[in-house]
Amino acid sequence: MSMPTLTELMEVGAHFGHKKEKSCPRAKVFTYIIRDSVYVINLEKTLEQLKTAIAYLKKAVEEDKVVLFVGTKQQAKEPVRKLAESFKMPFMVKHWPAGLLTNFATIKRSLKTLADLENTIKSPEFAQLTKKERKVVEEKKEKLYQIFEGIKDLKNMPDALFAVDTVKEKVAVSEARKMSIPIVGVCDTNANPDLIDIPIPANDDSAKTIVLLLKNIEEGIREQK
Questions:
Q1: In the chain, what is the straight-line distance between the N-terminal and C-terminal CA atoms, in Å?
Q2: Number of domains in the chain
Q3: Does the pTM of the predicted model rise above 0.85?
C-alpha cells in the first residue's frame, strides 16, 4: 500500500498541531507531546489512520460507491479536486451549499435546472434566440455552475464523505452525520475526532501536508491487489 514515510511527513510539517488552548481535548489521543505550548501530532498514528482510510476508500471505489470529496479552504481546493476527478467522483471545493445532504431533493432540482440550461445552450434553438435572451440563459447557467460544478452529475446521495479540515467543513460533517453517511477526514488538533468515522490526524493548514496525504490516498486506491 502506498504510504509516506515518517520522514516525509516530518518534512512537510504534518506533525504540527494547534496550541493547547485551541485544541480539542478529544484530539489528545492522536498527539505525542506538547512543545512550546503546541501539540505535536503522533505521526505513527497518522500512518495507522491513513492506512485505514485508504483501505476504506479503495473498497468504496472498487464497489462503485460514490464518495463526495470536500475541501473548500484555499490549500485544499486543487488537491481535493484532482483526487476526486481522478476517480470521477463528485467534489465540493467552493462554498458548501446548505442542505446539500439534509435537503438533497431541493439540491437535485437545482442540478436538473443546471442540466436543462446546459442542454438548451447546446441545442440548435439556442442560436435562434436574441442576444439578450441568450445572455439571460448563459448567466443563469453560469451562476448554478459556479455553485454545483463538482456535483452536477450527482444522481443520488453519496455513500461516503471525505473532508480536508473537518472544522472548516463542519456543516458538511454535521449534515453527513445527520444522514448517517460515513466520514473520512483529515483532522488537526482543533477537531473532535469522535465526530469522524476515520480521522486522519495531521496538520490540515499545511498545503504540502495536504498534497502528500492526498497523493498517497490516490496511489493507494489505484494499487492492484
A1: 9
A2: 2
A3: yes
